Amino acid sequence: MDLTPVLVVLLPVLLVFSVGLVGGTRRLGFWLSVLLAVVLTPIGGVLVAVLSGPKRIKPKKKKRSAPPPEADTSRSA
Fold this sequence. Notes:
Blueprint: H1 4-24, H2 30-51
Helix pairs in contact: 1-2
């Protein structure tokens, strides 16, 4: 069995997908990296994705905790 047709189709698809995975951690994101890999070839897509820089990390908002319950000092017995 000749594997050439499988490799001709499968190898480029895997390369483009791997460029998307690299771009997923970069500013471009997954889908834009995939698009660039299709247009510019996978090598060009990787270069653009890597040069785009790391993804900006948004600071997490601190949750406001509920104020402690006030102590009930008035006792009615």
